[in-house]
Amino acid sequence: MFLEQGIKPQNKFWLYLIGSVFIIIASFIGQIPFSAAVFYSSFVNKKEIPTSDAAVMKIFEPNLTLFLVLISFVFAFAGIYFVVKYLHHQTLLSVTTSRKKVDLKRVLFSFSIWTVFSVGSFAILYFNSPENFEWNFKLIPFLILVLIGSLLIPIQTSTEEYVFRGYLMQGFANLAKNRWFPLLMTSLIFGTMHIFNPEVTKMGYIIMVYYIGTGLFLGIITLMDEGMELALGFHAANNLVGALLVTSDWSVFQTHSIFIDMSEPSAGFDVILPIVVIYPILLFIFSKKYKWTNWKEKLTGEINVLESQN
């Protein structure tokens, strides 16, 4: 069982706190190339160093900015591997899935189905309000974006999934010895980690419902499927398709996407729609395909500590 794989006598909760700090430090080290590039650019161009995140993100060409930002996740992922192996004496597989090996078919199915949903949703928006979108396609910058995105965005999204749905979910399971507490805590932390995103400034805190709800959805499919494969595929598709398809001047990343969203952002039913309609549809599809049963026990049940340590 997925959560039980992390419950060992030596895996005290305070070790997860130390491990989390180590992963954060690794991420900060990964941000050094971007910081160094910003300082160098300011020195060469004799300009003041930008003080806001928005200004920093506009210093370089979008593809270079994206590359420099995503590099930090490579370091963070290395930090996860180090912590899992040397601090907790587990394998990376044990915080990925309860299966004997990672089920790539699950990853690809989740990636594909969310790609179809995302492209389909955008198509509906575009044909309903084409005036809100501007054609932005430039072949060479777009191909570079595809290369950078295909290589590094899955690392970024996988890093986040390993932290929240893998490492911390098992950590909170060690603390609470049940399933509902890790599910709720990782969802809340995942959501609040997005509180400084420019989307929150533009739309207000109501969008936190979407972020926390997405964390809850990813946690549910991880617990029901006894592994992160579906969450890995979903998250990668969400960020990669978003980066390639449409960008805006108020989103986290400005990319050489195919379209630019020119509309004024507002938090309406579109924020709630994924939580109350789309995610339940996906849960239904996954549950039928993978024959999920015993929902209450898998999402809220107690963990038998003696069995998990055998």
Spatial order of the strands forming the largest sheet: 1-3-2
SS summary, helix count = 13
Number of strands: 3
> In terms of per-residue confidence, which ranges show pLDDT below 50 for 5 or more consecutive residues?
none
The sequence of SSEs as H and E is HHHHHEHHHHHEEHHH
> In percent, how helical is the residue content?
55-70%
| Span of the ends, CA to CA | 12 Å
**What structural class should be given to the helix and strand makeup?**
mainly alpha
What number is the mean pLDDT?
Answer: 93
Main beta sheet strand tally, sense and closure: 3 strands, mixed
Radius of gyration: 20 Å
Approximate shape? globular
> Beta-strand level of the residues, as a percent range?
under 5%
Q: How many domain units?
A: 1
Domain CAAX prenyl protease 2/Lysostaphin resistance protein A-like: 142-241
Protein name: CAAX prenyl protease 2/Lysostaphin resistance protein A-like domain-containing protein
Keywords: Membrane, Transmembrane, Transmembrane helix
GO molecular function: endopeptidase activity
Features:
310 residues, mainly alpha, 3-stranded mixed β-sheet, globular, Rce1/LyrA-like_dom, transmembrane, membrane, transmembrane helix, CAAX prenyl protease 2/Lysostaphin resistance protein A-like domain-containing protein
Description:
- This is CAAX prenyl protease 2/Lysostaphin resistance protein A-like domain-containing protein.
- InterPro entries: Rce1/LyrA-like_dom.
- One of its GO terms (molecular function) is endopeptidase activity.
- The chain crosses the membrane at residues 13-44, 64-87, 107-127, 139-159, 180-197, 203-223, 230-247, 267-286.
- With 310 residues, the protein is an all-alpha fold.
- It has one domain.
- It is 68% helix and 3% strand.
- The chain is built from 13 helices and 3 strands.
- A 3-stranded mixed sheet has the order 1-3-2.
- Helix 4 (62-87) runs parallel beside helix 6, helix 6 (139-176) runs antiparallel to helix 10 and helix 9 packs antiparallel against helix 10.
- It is globular and about 60 Å long.
- The model has no long low-confidence stretch (mean pLDDT 93).
